[in-house]
Amino acid sequence: MIPSVLPTYNRAPLSFVKGEGSWMIEADGRRFLDLGAGIAVNALGHANPVLVKALTEQAEKIWHVSNLYQIPQQQELADRLVENSFADTVFFTNSGTEACELAVKMARKYWHDKDQPEKVEIIGFEGAFHGRSSAGIAAAGGEKLTRGFGPLLPGFLHLPWGDLEALAAAIGDRTAAVIVEPIQGEGGIRAMADADLRALSEICRDRGVLLILDEVQCGVGRTGKLFAHEWAGISPDIMMVAKGIGGGFPLGAVLASEEAASGMVAGSHGSTYGGNPLGCAVGNAVIGVVSAPEFLAEVNRKAGLMRQKLEGLVAAYPQVFEEVRGSGLMLGLKCRAANGDVVAAGYGQEIATVPAADNVVRLLPPLTITDDEITQAVTRLGNAAAQLAAEQG
Questions:
Q1: Residue 144: enclosing H or E segment and its boundaries?
Q2: Which of 41, 135, 308, 322 could lock onto 334 through a cystine, CB 3.0 to 4.6 A?
Q3: What are 191's strand-pairing partners?
């Protein structure tokens, strides 16, 4: 008999009932150190007082009005994002998947309004993840995402990860845009080198196609800049964000230049819930904290500390781990043991991590994690690795 909750998840046998900062409390009282942050969502940790205050104050005023009316909280958050990014305009969604849908529509509408309706093809890369909607799975193209869901939305081409020669050769008369994650999250914490990201951007500019960046997982302070592409010194035309921007409240956005967004006029897109007062009140609180230079400097400092300790962990357990990947507090352990076994052993040490492709374990702690918690985290991961190493003999 099918359960009342559709069984599309392989859930761990854990039920967390409370969160405090970098910790999650299980129903039986055990305290787990959270290195997943809800898959890079809880950027400021659990029950952060700044976010609790923003949420409760707004909840006592008005929750939802729809986009039939002006929404001051939405305007404030849009202004903040424009001030702190390349963008001229912002559309708010409820998720990264919805942001992908709009990014695809925006790119195609741009060329349609330029009297080049044949430009509909969007080029992506192997290993990508852009959500689970029809456009999202078509843009990513992986069999795990697409099998059984055909016919797929047409107009997408997929190239080997980071192959810039293939990209230059693939761009043609039908190409509308290139979509890429500066750091692949689901794909195994695979970071595109800054030089390669700059070269990719230059190819798009030289060939006259739009550049769409998916920063749903790597954005909002995760790498030590507000947005990951800032390290490469580039500016996209369209960018998808979500996850961390709401700090745990469902919120996403598409940021765009005025030129790229020129085709999106009244009636061309919409959302019932997107950018409602409650979500944007929380989003404003998140951006108010994360965009501060001193906060980002701390993320970078803590990222250096964590990476140093993880490198020592890899050196101590070479039969379990192969290398450390990633940037900022978006890190991955490439495993020699099965990554699922590493995650499970971590649960035994009361630490939560996230598996990814390419046999990688993702480490995505709250950006507010403390030095002591980083030390505890690596100690617990070491205990898990020692257990696995002993089992291997």
A1: helix 143-146
A2: 322
A3: 183
